[in-house]
Each structure stands twice: as C-alpha cells, then as structure tokens.
Records
---
Amino acid sequence: MINSEYILFAGIGLAIIVDLLRKELHIEKQFYLHALTLIILVASFLTEIFYGNMSIPFYSGAQYSYFINGFLLFLSVVIYSFIWADGGAEGSTYLDILFLLAVGGAMLVVLSSNLLSMAVAIEMLSIASYGLVYFQKSDRHLEAAVKYLTTSVVSMAILLFGISLVFAGSGTLSFTSLYNINFIPFVAGVVFVVVGLAFKSTLVPFHMWAPDVYEASDSAITAFLSSISKTAGLVALIRIFFFAIPVSHMISTLFLGIALVTIFFSIFLATVQDRIKRILAYSSISQAGFAFIGLGLFTANGLFASVFYIFSFAIADALIFLAYRLFEERGIIYRKDAKKMRSVSAIGLAGVILGLLSLAGFPPTIGFFGKLLIFESILGSGYVYILIALFFILLFSTFYYFGLLSDTGFGQEMETRKKLLTKSPRMRVKEIIVLILILSLFAGIVFA
Amino acid sequence: MLFFILLPAIIATLLIPLFRKEYSFIVSITGTALSLILSGYHFYAGFGKIIEQSYTWMTVNGYSIVLSTVSNNLTLFMATLVSFISLMVLIFSTFYMKKEPQKRFYAEMSFFIFSMLGLVISNSLLLFFVFWEFIGVSSYLLIGFWYSKEAPSAAGKKALVITRIGDMALLAAIIILFTAVHTFSLSSILNELSVIPPATMAIVSVLLITAAFSKAAQFPFYTWLIDAMEGPTPVSALLHSATMVAAGAYLAVLVLPIIQSAGMTGLVTGFGFLTSLIAAFLALRERHFKKILAYSTMESLAFMFLAIGTANTGGAVFYLFTHAVFKSLLFFVSGVLALSFGTYDIYKIKSRGSRKSWVLIPSLIGFLSLSAIPPFMSFFAHLSITYGFNFYENVGFVVISFLTALFAFRAFFIIFSSNRSRPTLKDPAAYFPVYILAAVSSVGGSFLLFFNNLLPIQYRLDMFSYLSLVAAALGIYMALELFYYKKASRMVAKLYLLSDRIANYRYDNILLYTGNSIVGFGEVVAEFDNVLARSFSRLAASAMYLSSKSRRIQNGDALSYIDAIFIGMVALLLLVVVML
Amino acid sequence: MIINLIGFLIIPLIGIMALILNNYTKSTSQKNITIISMCSTAVLFLVGLVYGFGGFDVSLVQSLDFSFSLVTNSLSTPFILLSVFVPLIAIISLNREKSESSTIFHIFYMLAYMSAIIVFISGNLISLFLFWEVTVLSMFFIISLFGDGANKRSAMKFLIFTQFGSLTLLGAFILVFIYTGSFSLTTLFATASSIPSIVSYTIFIFILVTALIKMPVFPLHEWLPDAYLSAPMSGTVFLSAVMSKLGGYILILFGLELFPSILHRFSIPLLILGIIAVIYMAFAASGQKNLKSMLSYSSAFYMGLVFIGIVSTSVSAVTGSVILMVSHSFIIASLFAMSSMLFSRIGTHDIYKSGGVMKRMPVLTFFFVFMVFATLGVPGLSNFVGELLIFIGSYSVFPFVLVSLVGLLVATNYYLNSVRKIFYGTLHSSLKKISDISLVEIFGLSLFSFFVILIGLYPSLIIGSFGVI
C-alpha cells in the first residue's frame, strides 16, 4: 500500500544518504538535494491526494487525518519552494533534512494513537524547528532559537510528566483504552498534557515565546511555525480529547475559557504593536484561540469547524508571512513603512491584504467560512453569550487588521509607480508561490 | 370636467420659461383669463348642481387613496372669484413689476393661481392638502421674491415655517379622519360624522382650527402676515389678502360641521374677537401702509371666523368676496403710491404730497368699504356676518367697528392730508384694475339680495347694525379731528401709547423666543450628539491605553516566559481542583 | 427575452476588469468606464422590468447549503431601482471630486454598486451576507483612502459599528440555519414557523440591531456624523442613498416578513423609540452649522420615519416606508450632490459663511429649493407619498406617531434656514466670480428630479412593483 508517510520517511532516509554521498563525492552544488527534498514533499502530497480520502468525516477513527496531512503537505511544498526560491537554503546543508523531519514529525502527531508516540512525534517536530529557526545563523536567529529551545524544553518536560501521570492513572497510553482510569493522577496528568500542547499551539498564557520567535525568525520559517507547527499542536489536542480521554462538561468550560482568554489577550496586544510582523504574530495567536473554541465545544460540529478553521488560518498565516517576506527584505518593518508596500510588489501586497481579510473573517475568503462554522457550532451548542463576546472582540480586532490595511495605502495614486523596483526572476518565482496561496485561499472553500 | 379650469394656469406656469421675458406676462394673463372664462362657464352651466369627480391615485392595503373634485355653487363661485381677482392682480402687476425679473414672478404667480383654483374645487381632503401645501410653497417663493434683500427672505421663511404648523395639523387631522372613516372625501366624511368618537372629533377640530388659523394669520400665528408685506405688492394683494389667507377661512367653512359637532365653535369666535381687537389696535400705530392693510386683513379674516363661529357660512363667504375686492383695491392704491413716491411710510407719502392723486377717490371707496359705510359693499356683508351674533358679540362688534373706522381713516387722512401735490404715476395697467374694483366695491353690496340663490345666506338690519354704523361714523369723525385737523394731540399720544403697550405684548416676541429656544435646543442636541459620538472614540482609546499597558508583560526575557508557563499551569491545576 | 439576474453581477465585473485594464492602457478616463458599465446595468434593469427577470442558482458548498442564488423577491424591485440609478446619477453629476481619477476609487465604487444590487436579489443568506460585507469593505476603503479630514478614524469607526451590525446579522443567519437547516431564503420562509420562540426572539433582536446600526436609528447612529462628513461626496451619497436602505430592506425582509408576530409584539416600544429617534435627529440636524452634516442628520431623520413605518407592521405604513426609502434615496443623493457642487465653487460647507449665491447660480438654487421642498414632503413630489402612507398606517397602531410631525416642522425650519443663508441675501464679495453649474451637472440633477416627480405623481408605479405580506 502506498502511503504518504512511508514516502516521506523513505525520502528522509534517502536525503540523508544523498547528503552523505554528496560530501563523499565532493559535489558542492546543493541543487540536487533541494530538488530531491521538493520531489519528496510533492510525491508525498500527491500520494496523499490520490490515495487518501480528502473529505472530513467525523469520529471515524483517524480518517480526517488524511485531510490534515494533505494540507500540511501542501503547505510544506509551498513553504519549502518559497525558501528555496528565496535563496535562504543556499548556505545551509541541513535545512532540507530538518525541514523534512519537521514535516514528518507534524504528520506523525496527526497520525499517532498513543500518547508516547505522540510525545515522540512532537519532540521530533520541535527539535527540527529549533534548527529551522537558526538555519541562517545570525545573532537574531540564535536568540530566537535559544528562546524557543529553553521555553520549549520546559513545556516538553511538563508534557512528558503529564503523560507519565496519565499512565499512572490509567495504566495505558493507547488512545483506544484510556477510559479505565484512576481519577486524581489522571486529571493532574491531563492538565499537564494540556499545558504541554497548549505551548505548541500558542494558547495564552503559554504563548509568550511565540511573538518573539515569530518576529526574530526568517519569515518563511515563521510561516512554517505558525501554520504547520501550530496545526500539529492543535491537532494533538483534538486527537487526545476527541478520541482518547473521556471529557466532561468541566473540561469544556475550561477549554472555552482558555480560548476566550487567548483571543482577548492576543487581540488586545496586537492592537498596540508597531511592527507589522508582531501584529501578525499576535493575530496568529488569536487564530489558535478561535480554533480552540471549536475544540472546546466537544461536538461533532465543533470538531469539524475546528479542523476547517485550522485549515483556513494555516493557509492564511502561511500566505501572509510568505508575502510579508517580500517586503521584509526591503526594510518594511513598521506600520508606518507599510505605505511603501505598493512599490515593492503588487502581488505581495494583494497577498497581505487578502490574508488579512481572511484572518479578519471577511467573505468571500476561506477565513469567513471558518468563522462561520465556528459561530455555527457555538450557536449550535447554545452559547449565545460567548458569541456576543466574540462579536465585540472581533470588532476590536478590526482595529489592527483594518488599520494595517489602510496603512498599506494601496489606493493612493501611484506616484510611486515609476519607482517600482525591477524584479529579479527570483522575485517572480516568489510572487507566483504567493499567488498559488492566494488562489487556495478561495479554492479551499470547497472543503467546507 | 372641472379640473379643466386648472389647466390654463399650470400650463402657463410651464410655458413661461420657454418664452422671452417680455412676453411672460402675456402667457400668464392669458392663462388666468382662460381660467376665468372656464370657471365662469362652469358656474353658469353647473349652477345649482353638485357633481363629484374622482381619480384613484393609488391603492394600498385595499384602501383606495382617491383625489376628488366637486363642483357646486360654493366651489364654482370661489373659483370664479379667485380667477377674477387673480386677473386683476396680474394686470396690475404689469404696471408694478415692470422693472423686475418677470419670468420667475409670473411663473410663480401662475403656479399660485393654479394651486388656489385647485384648492377651492377640491372635495377630497387629500387633494385639498396638496393644493394647500402648494399655496404655502408659492407664498414662500413670492414673499422672498427679492431674495437678495435680507428682510424678504427672512419673511418668506417665517411665513412658511409658521403656516407649516398648520399644514402639519391639517395633515394630522386628515390622517385621523381617514383612519376613522377610511375615506378622504369631505362629503363622505361629513355624512359619517356620527361614527367618529367625540374625543377624536375634539382633537380633529382643534387641529383643523389650528390649520385654518395659521393660514389665515389669526391670533397666535399672525406675525408672518405682517412680515410678508416685504414681498411685492401684487403678491400682497393676491396672496396675503384676497385668496391665500382666505383659504384658511374657506377650510373652516368646509369643515364647519366637524367643528360644530365637536362643540368648538366658541373657540373660533373667541379667537376671532381677540384677533380683531389686537389687529385694530396694532393698526392704529403702524406707519407702513401695507402693514396697516395687513392688520386690517387679519381683522377681516377674524370677521369671517366670527361668522363661521356662529354657524353662518353664507355670511363668511359673502364677506370673503367683499373683502377680496376692496382689499385688493387698497393694495393697488398702496402700490401706485409706493411706486410714485418710493415709500410705504404713510407720513412720508404725505410729506411728498399726494393730495391731487387720481387714487384719492378709489382709496376713499376702499376705506369706506373697509369701515362698512353704506352703500359700499362691506356694509351689506356686515349685516350678514352679525346675523348669528348674540348680545355680547354684538356689543363687541360695535366697538370693533369703531376701531376699524378709526384706524382706516387715520391712514386715509394722514396720507391725503398734505396740500402739496406731486404727479402720481398713471398707467392703464394700474387704473384699469383699480377702477374696476372700485366700481365693484361701490355697487357690489347689491349682490347680497340675490346671493341667497347661490348660498344660503341670512341678514338682518337691527339695532346693532345702526349702532355699528354710528360707531363707524364716530370713528371716521374722530380720525378726521385727530389726524386731519390734528386736534387733541395728547389723546393721540395716549392712543399710540396704548397700542404700543399692546405691541409690547405682541406674540411676536414670544414667537421669537420660542424660535430661538428651538434653535438653541437643536444646538444642545447637536452638541450632545457630538459628545456621544466622541465618547465611543474615547472608549476605544481607553481600551487602547489598557492594551498598551498590558504590553509590558511581554518583555522578551525567556525566563519570565517560563515563569508564565508555570503560573499558567498552576492556575489551571487550581481551577481544575476548584471545579472538581 | 428574460433577463437573468446574473447580469447584475457580470456587467459590473466586466466594468471592473475594464477599469483594471484601462489603468494600463489609459485609453479613456476611468469615470467613463464606470458610467458606461453602470448605464449598461441600468439598461439591463429596465429591459428586465419589461420582460421579467430570470433566477440564477448554483450550489457551491453542500454541507453549508451555500449556493450562489439570485432571485427577485416581493421586495426587490424598488430597491434595485434605487441601487441601480442613484449611484449612477451621482457619479454623473459629481465631476469635481478629487478621487475622480483614481482607479482604486472606481473599482471600489463599482464593487459597492454591484454588491448592493446583489444583496437585494440574493436568494441565499450566505451570498447575501457576502455581498453585504463587500459593500461595507468598499465603503471603508472609499472613506479611509479618499475621504478628507479625520478620514482614517471615521472609516475605522464606521467599520467598527457596521461590522458589529454585520456580525449580529451573521449570528441571526446562523441561528436560522441551525433551526431550519437551510440558508435558502425560500426554504426559510416556508420553515420559519419551526423555529422555537426563544430563538426567534434572539434572531429578531440580532436583526434589529443590524438594522438600527445600518439605517441608522438614534441610539446606534454614532458612526454617522463622522463617516458622512469624512467620506468623499460620492461615498456619502452611496452611504446615505444605498447603504442605509440595506438596513431597511433587511428589517422588512427578516424582521417583518419572517417574524411578524414578534415585531407586532414589540411594535409599540419600537415605535416610541422611532419617535424619539425622529425628534432627536430633527433637532440634532437643526443644530448643525455645516451643510454636509446637516444633510447627514436629516438623512437619519428620514430613516427614522422609515423605521417607524416598518415597525408599525401596518401594510400601508410599510408600503410607505419602501416608497420613502426609494424617494429619499434620490432626494438625499441630489442634495448631497448639490452640496458638493456648491463646495467645489465656494469652498466651504459652512452655512453661515456664504450668502447670496442665487445671484450667481440661479439654476443650482432652483434645483436645491426644489429638492428641499421634495424632502419636506410637498405633495406631488415623492417624499409626500411615503410620509402620508407611513402616518396613515402607523397612526392606527399608535396614535402618538403624529408627534413626529414636529420633526418635519423642525426640518422645515432648518432647511429653509440653510437655503436662506446660502442662497439668499447679499452676495459675498468673495463669491463674485463663481459660475453656475455645468450642463452635465444640470443633466444629473434633472434625472434626479425626474424620478422625484415621477414617483410623486405616480406612486402606483412603485406600489405595484412590490408586495408586503
């Protein structure tokens, strides 16, 4: 049976071997390695599409994981091609392998049906991510990587401790048999597990690392962290709480509380940021909060909404960070610089604008349908008050989304037109990648 | 088809912009003359018949909203009267308005004539309201004809705002009546009065009386009429004495059964007396010729309301007719004098010398008419007005007759008392209408004898009629003594003082105060709204401030992030424990 | 030859494409393209009125019941009329705007134009909401990018308020979907009775909030003064003439036709609110010293009357409300257009800083006074019919609505005052050189007047074109 994961892991092995051989044979060109990585990712993605089931059925074991892995692979292909086109991969020898490992780890998180294997998968994703953050080897990246590493190690320790407590409480770690439990250690264990995973999914108050790391990393890597890595964290939570642990009303309340706090806090902080990338980072955090609401409802609709929402914001986040990469290299860092965007790249600007609209939940982007499903599941469970609270906080979020949008000043008459920079072929390729993501921002609606 | 009599006027309105300005008066006069001929023909052909015609304007919710006209003696008489007076005024305008931008003037006049004719033939209250509004609008435009001067434009605005109080009252009354009987047709409404509850009836009558009073410039609303004299004199003659203001009385005539069944006739009479007293006193001290005439118009309209208040519609209509004739005459005279001497101030006219003017005799006829001296027509009208009066009303009326004659002949004697003389302008367009109207005023009283065929009318020559006559004669004599021979100047001074005192209590000031306070209130509300709007921005700003404070939590120190993780973890654990 | 409603989407989209292409080729001015495509839309509408409209339906997302479906419902025709013609005539007559040459402006204007039409003919709640949001978005950018004064702040405020209204609308739609399982308008009307009463109350309140914000009616109107004042004139015209009608449309369609019994129950309190709103707006307008903000408040005043008509639930009053919306749309658009013409010549919106303009601009004065009378409800012009029907209908529900006639009185005062201050009196020495409006502007204003007179004389044309339950 052909399976995308097999292909991916076989590919990782192959890549390591090729890398070794390359050193042995003294081939300085890394082109082959990059091409191989991309081929592995594409092949894996195609397998997923052709042999997987891309619809999202509920409660049918791990069926929905095809969908998640599918879009994870899609995003990986896009992000990797962008990194390659960007030239970031040139100086490094280990980027390809790290990237493949990280993607593999994320996919394993989605697939795992045992707490231990899940912990291992997350560890694999995390360790690869530290490397990715530091792959350009500048001081800024080093600081980010260290910050990420230190905080992440703590959270991983908490996660493992939690898993051990769960084991103490139930005597098993398999998702299918976690119902026979001893209460106290089990509950404590669950709380620790939540904390560990919430770190990865950047839920407040375990999100603190995210703005700093997002901002300091290369934007393409930020795109990876905020889409693929965060997806893995959220899906792990879904896996555990939907398919393994018996949930109670209490957990639901707790989760909704965490989600609301996340949304409120991140949106409040996003409003006062000056640096564009930091705004985007906080916005990304708030998106996780929204996705978490769907999870916290513990209904079939909620799960579906949550999965779709993760999908929608992962695409939008990937798009917006990649598009922002086009501007970052021209020194557009602060909000007040945003008006120069038009002169750098129209497609990039379109990417930023549409990405922002999607994150803000404006139709007809995919973000709107994500929010629609979330709202629907909230109302379906009867939480009208939560909905109204969300209305208000969404209004607050329009401050920064639309403030940023009008800062970009895309409507201003183009006296800057003449100064439009000549574009390198490389820029063209990057723009095309952004364009693909823009299209998928609309095409993704079919999965709703 | 009754509405044919409207067509010439409205067609003239629309055609005037197409013609050269020198010809605009021809179009207008032709239109009005055609209207006069048509209404005369209808009067002749339809005499004694009642024909209603209706047109369904729209149908909503199963109710038809119908516009209907009625042709009966009253409406046809009114139509003929209106078109006759309008024709006279338009002819006079060719004299008075020679130097003005004529297109706009004649277009607006034709539009007014169209609206006034439409008003008098309406049967449906809705149609009545339509033309009622048109009249208000054309009055606004015509008063403010000299837009570049401050006073006329202010007067026009004031006139429309105040009459619009009545318009809104009328609209409210129409709506209330429609809700009660589901029809706009006046004849049907009057047939179904019994189904309307008394309270509704009372409200409707008050509203209708308000509407009539505001249009007819009665007591609480009268100030606009005095200011309206800023407009051109033909406009004052046509709108502000003969027709438009009379529309208020005409409305009261039409809806009298409603007022009667609500028992509000006393209100009408009471305000009528009040208005006539105030008007007579205020006219005594006025120096502006047209404003004296305006006060007398107010008073005359009050007479009509006195007749209406005593359920004497025939008398009211007859007085409306006589008043229209002699008051237009007087306005024409004032126009001729003003053009000749360049002022409306009666003392200035006197000092510039008007003794030998050709208008002396017509104006004497006019003032005698105004003072109800036989054989001039107003005397006969007074016989008919007083028919329904009781003792007190009769006594009051005698007093008012005295005052009327006094202020009328004060004006007359002052104007024509100087021996100096300067030539007055003489123009066929001026003396033709003046002489015609003077002739009608002199012999028109005889209409009373066969007016009964037209409308039921009763009159009586009793003791009080003689008393009134004596009072009027006394008034004329006093005016002669006081203002022509200038005897007893102390008494004159006292008289002036008295009316000055009344003037100080003029409703005008209260109105001004009310107007100012409304505007002030508007400013307060606007300011409040501004504050309200800003408060939302403040709210947003304070939230921003809060966020910027909370920003400090994120200080970039990895260790404190780890602290946060632990704090969060402990908090979660505690929460779980509490919730368990 | 039945006109398919998809034409209302396709023709403006072609127009937008042409705008983008023309941005590079520069073969003609962007404004011409906008006018041509709007004219084509108008022709399409007129042909459709004669031959009938065909529906359009394509299902996009099964699970959400999201289909792109366009159908005319019993209410749409008058609303399409106003949304097709008013922006067109406005853009014809406003030819001295600074935003004139901008491609982006025209694209957003076309987008707003198109989506407002589509909202009125959407047969699916999601597509309705989708285009509803596009209008909001386009207006946000028009204000934020092309406005003057505190445009960024005003745009943000506008967005925050209307966005809240949109969210409540979305909430209402989702609740409807949860309980009827469909976003389709036709299914919705068939199954609305199956919604439990507490839920339908919630839906109703959501819809009400949306309408109150959008129209806007008194307690939720705070965005109005800023947004109307800061927007470029064509934006203000669109806001007052089309956007505010979206609120009325939604209130009739969902508040009245979907939950008549609830509206009926709340009728009296809402009428009281309406009366307060009307009086408040009338006084607020009378306190303005700026012509543009006076017109803005006056616009809100008339929307208050519309609100009264709708919440009275009486058929005549609702009919009157629709007529008033159509008529007010033409009238306020022309008044705003004229204030812009005036502004471009005398350089101020301040009522007290100009005077005697009539001497130099008799034609403009004629149109202005004409429209003032139209807006004051002089019979024979369109507003009168609407006001009359509203008062007739709502009086039988709640007699005290006649109090709002006081508002009309106040309106008479401030309108005539502004006419007097601006046009009458002695000519300001600084205004000696101004010229009267051009032929194009006269043409635009005549078109507005044509509709005002047409509706005023033959209201049956509008009344016959729609039905209220």
---
Amino acid sequence: MNENNNIVEVVGLKQYFRVKTGFFRRRNLKAVDDVSFAIKKGETLGLVGESGCGKTTVGRSMIRLYEPTAGKVIFDGQEMSKRNVTHMRRNMQMVFQDPYSSLNPRMTVEDIIAEPLIVHKLFPKKKDRHAKVVELLKLVGLSPEHARRYAHEFSGGQRQRIGIARALSVDPAFIVCDESVSALDVSIQAQILNTFKKLQKQLNLSYLFIAHDILVITYMSDRVAVMYLGKIVELAKTTEINRNPIHPYTESLYSAVPIPDPITARKSQRIVLQGDVPSPLNLPSGCSFRTRCPYATEKCAEETPPLIDRGDEHYAACWNR
Amino acid sequence: MNMQGLHEKKEGVILSVRNLSTSFFTGSGEVKAVNGVSFDLEAGKVLGIVGESGSGKSVTAYSILQILTHPGRIVGGQVLYKGVDLAKFSQRQMREIRGEQISIIFQDPMTSLNPTYTVGNQIGEAIRLHTSRRGSEVRDRIVELLTLVGINEPQKRADQYPHELSGGMRQRIMIAMAIACEPDILIADEPTTALDVTIQAQILELIQKLQDELGLAVIMITHDLGIIADMCDDIIVMYAGSIAERGSADDIFYNPHHEYTKGLLHSIPTMEKTDDMLIPIAGSPVDMLAMPAGCPFAPRCPSAMKVCMTDMPEELEIGDGHFASCWMNVKDMVMAEAGEQHE
C-alpha cells in the first residue's frame, strides 16, 4: 500500500512512434513527451486537448496498449511492466470511444461482458459468471434479458453501457474513459455521464476522463489537465482552470467554447488563435505553442518551459504568464 | 418560369418553407425523414436548425436544394424562394439556383473537394459556370475570394491541392466556393463538427464576418446548442422529422414550450462546475420505420398524456413568432380559458 492516497501515478511518460517520412527516412513522432501526473482514489482527472495532442495515447500507454518509450506507470504503489501487465489490467480498464467498433459483432452481450472474467480466471463456474453478468447489466441500467442479444441490436447509448459493464466486470479501481461519450447524441450523452458519476460514487472508482468537449470535462472532472502537442501545458482544479487559466493556450481554448446560453454568448469575447497546429513531426523549438501564441518572446524559442506549481496545485508551463 | 425576378434583392422573408415533407423509400418501408415542416428565413438573418442525429435537419436543407440522394424525394409541400416554388423546379432549373442564389457547405471539407484539382480550379469552376468572367478575371476573383475568407498567400494557395491544406483551410476554401457568386442564402450543414475547438472558433468568426459584410442569410444546421446560442437569431428545434419548437434564440433558451427543448437544455453541461446531476431525456431516439401514432416525442416525454400517444399536436403560437407543437400548451390554454370563464 502507498501512503499518498494516489491510485495511479504517471512519471515522465514518453511515447514515440517511428514513422516513415521518406523512402528511407524514419523519424520519431513524439506523441507523448514527458508527461507526469497522479490520480487520487475516487478522483476524476480530465484530460482535454485538440485532435493529435496525444491525449488518447496517454490513456493507451497507461494501460499498455502501447509499450511506452520511457517513463513509469505506478498503480497502487506497484510499477507496471511487461511482465505483470495482465495482472495489472485487472485493476485498470478502459471504455472506448466508438461503441460500434469496440464490441465484437459475433459475440452475445453475455460473452462480451464475461470475457474479462475468463481472461482473469474469475468466477470459474458458468452459473456464477452468468449471475455476475446479470448483476453488471443491472448496474449499468440494462435489463438481464439483454444478455443473449448481439451488439447490433442496441442503440449507441446502450452499446456504450455494454462497454462500461465489460470494463466493470473485473472490479477495477481505475478506468480510462477515452472519448466515451463523444459519439453520442446530447440526450444520450447526459444519460451515460450520469451513469459514470453514479458508478464512481457507488464503487469508489477513479477515472482518467479523456475528451475534447470542455463542457463534458468540466462536468465530470475534479481536476483538469490540458494537453498541447504531446505535453501537459496546464493542470489544476476544474473550477480554478475555468476561472483563472494561466497558459495562453488554455485561455484561448476555453474562450473558444461556444456557450449554450445566448446572453452569455453575446457578452463573451472569443480569443481566436491564428493559424493551425504545427505538425508533431516538425515541432517548433522551445515551447511548441509559441508559433500561435500572442505573448511569445525569444526565450520561448530557446527553452521549453517547465510545468511549475503556481500555488494551490495549479500547474502551468509558460515563461510569460 | 420567369427567372429574372430571382435576381432582385429583397427585404423581409426570403425563403419560406411550407409543409415540406421528404421521404426515403427504403426496402423496409417509407422513412418520413421530414414530415410537414414550415418556417420562414428572413434576409440577412441567421436561422439555426438544431436536433439530434436522424431528426431531419440535414434532409430539410437537402430538400431545399434538391440534392437528396436516392431513394429520397420530396413528397409534398412548397419551398418558396422569393415567391417561386423551388420544389417544382427541374434539376436543370435548380442548377441556376444552386451556388448562385443558395449555396451550401458541408461537414467534411475533405470529401466535398475534388482531390485531383487545385483549389483555385474548383473555385473557378463556380465562377465560370455562373458569371461571364473569363481568363484572368476568374483568377483575380479567386484570389479576391481567398483573401476574403482569410487565407494567407492566396496566389500560392490557389495552385495547391486539397490534401496540402489543413482541415480549417479546406473549410475556408469551401466557403470561398459557396460565396463565389454572391448568393442570398448560405446553408451551413454542421460546418465545424469535424474541426477542433480553436479552428471551429475561426470558422464561426469567418461566417459571422461574411454574413455581416455580404448581407447573407444563413441557415446553420448543427447538433451543438453552444453554436446555436452563439450564432443564431432564430432557432428551429427538430425531433424525428418534425419541428418541435421554433422561435427567437431567447424564446428557445429562456422560455421553452416543448418538453423536448426543455429536455435538451437540461442535458447539456454548463461551464460552471456544480455537483448537480444532469437531467437526461429517458429512453432512446425513435425508430423512424415505426413512428408512434401521436407526438413522436411522447414515448420519452416525462409529461406525456393520453392524447399525446394518439394524436399529433398542432403547432401553436406561444408568442410573437414563437411556435411549439406540444399538447401541454393546448392544455394550459384550455385551463386558462376555463379559469377566466369561472371568474
């Protein structure tokens, strides 16, 4: 057992991919570059950023769907390695984005939910397994009769519930939710978000909640980490990051969110960033945001700003703010 | 048909859709994708159509332009553009309308652009087709348009292919094509859904700027209530092919009179961090092949009554230009009248 109440810690995680850039040329794509954070027991950490910023890669490297280039993932005081990965995954599960491609169309719902139990050799008796599946279906708001059906018979929201039941089957303490509601319609999205919250209270779960939708992140998270081009640029409590964003990227990202309230929308000023995100294969020197940053100075081009605590556990990586 | 009258700019209502119905005749039956939709678009205004997937918001737009794919077709109603019914136009007549009078931009700019032609060439096609400009005049207009939509180095960009540009830039190219012939109406069908938040902000800003400068009327189709609140003067809320409610932005957000609109507004998280749970709409979207007899929202509606299951509610005017199709309003009205008589 560890003393600091963290369920999972990520230390200096790096995930590089070798990609072809020419006939013979190969280069490193730095999808995740030196990312560290910790998640407390029963806490939700939101991970937000735009496409290609590496937020999904962080989630996938954490549960070792990729072999990390460098860095450590420590779960409940125990470091994850190649050897103990199966054992560790009993405590760390994932709910995927696309409820259509993440469920095997040839398996019944019961087979899908029971598969992790078989992998981890839990409930060896078939009868017990079935009882567990029924319990899980009820837990996520489906009915036991659904067990014998196939995934294609369900709507997107129901499929996502099946995905959640599968993740919960092995009683994990920590779940990575990778854009788990972004494929769903607004009314169904609210159902699933509430299910996640309810389960968290009931089972004392911790989440890494990955999403690009800032309203969803705000609703779900206790703390939020903002990523840009493979690095965390800001990390703070949700209310703190909403009210006082420090990093210029966070500031413009949050101001760009269309607020579903006409009066607020008329008053608010968007900070519109110029230009596009640079290619992750050809990162700018120093701070990778400097090419779009209105406050960039010479120092930003020379040195990468470190992620520093600005008081009250509000971390930001910027030279000028 | 007299096409001359179409070129005059007018004030007031520019497009008036009356009782429009569009169905898809699939192997498993008729899908009433749009079912008796009526609304007006005023010149120079932004009208938002909001709804979930399958609500018929895109099919409404495609019906206006008659770009429906097989097996869909308009089965009834009128699309009155400056008093002329476009629903009766042949495909050939529609070619004079599309691009020149009414333009559309789509969700995914990559699949809407031809990968084998330069973007300049593709913008030029619209110009050559609809105007008398030729040769260097076309080129000048392309560069002018690219500058207008905020593309740096327009001379260079005009000779590039779509794959050389980013998603945001491609959407700018689409917009340049759409406004090339100075149309009266721009239909934007989920124009920023495929884009990141910061790029989305750029594109929304651009559409607002062009709308202002060119006096365009815009139909903004989206599932995002944030974009609707941000951009639109008037709003239509669609559910299962019908209009649930329509009115000004303030009517819809601050005085909703349809249970579906209320449900939608309760379902979205806000920017303020609270511990309150969201109030989702129960159940799943309707099966369009087996539509309920009455109000399509009745099976999910928290205040559904007996009549909701059997009869489709009529559209009722709640206030000036604010309409809702919900039996609850009829009930309230009857109760109020009964109360008056009692006194």
